[in-house]
């Protein structure tokens, strides 16, 4: 029997005989259920999309790039030498 408050995955099952659907808390190491609790028919696992939310920095390519400060951006820009204007005679 699992501990109270222990985090365990919830699996969804559906009976192929009576269409009964139910959920079961099972450890990763537990064997899959095989019989419907209502009619003892064969059951199958139902797989569905899981919503995942990534919070915090570091999940995008631009998050790991060093940010430039104002002094770095002006110092890093190459300055072209100014040529003297030709004399008009």
Descriptive notes:
This protein is mainly beta and 89 residues long. The chain has a domain of 49 residues: Single Sheet (Rubrerythrin, domain 2). 8% of the residues lie in helices and 17% in strands. The chain contains one helix and three strands, in the order E-E-E-H. Strands 2-1-3 form a three-stranded antiparallel sheet, with no helix packed on it. Strand 1 and strand 2 form a beta hairpin. The longest helix has 7 residues. The chain is rod-shaped, with a radius of gyration of 32 Å. The N and C termini lie far apart (102 Å). The mean pLDDT is 78.
Question: What are the key terms here?
Answer:
single chain; rod-shaped; 89 residues; mainly beta; Rubrerythrin, domain 2; three-stranded antiparallel sheet
Quick structural overview:
The chain has one helix at residues 70-76, and strands at 10-15, 21-25, 43-46.
Largest sheet, if any? 3 strands, antiparallel
Helix content: under 10%
What's the total helix number? 1
Mean pLDDT: 78
Order of helices and strands: EEEH
| Overall form | rod-shaped
CATH architecture of the domain at 1-49: Single Sheet
Which spans of ≥5 residues are poorly predicted at pLDDT below 50?
A: none
Radius of gyration: 32 Å
Overall CATH class of the domain at 1-49 = Mainly Beta
Strand content: 15-25%
* Strand arrangement in the largest pleated sheet: 2-1-3
Topology:
Blueprint: E1 10-15, E2 21-25, E3 43-46, H1 70-76
Antiparallel strand pairs: 1-2, 1-3
């Amino acid at each position: 029997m699992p501990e109270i408050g222990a985090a365990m995955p919830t699996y969804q099952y559906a009976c192929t005989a009576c269409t009964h659907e139910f959920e079961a808390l099972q450890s990763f190491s537990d064997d899959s259920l095989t019989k419907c609790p209502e009619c003892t028919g064969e059951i199958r696992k139902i797989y569905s999309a899981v919503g995942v939310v990534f919070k915090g920095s570091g999940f995008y390519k631009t998050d790991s790039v060093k940010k430039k400060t104002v002094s770095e951006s002006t110092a890093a820009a190459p300055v072209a030498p100014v040529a003297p204007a030709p004399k008009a005679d």
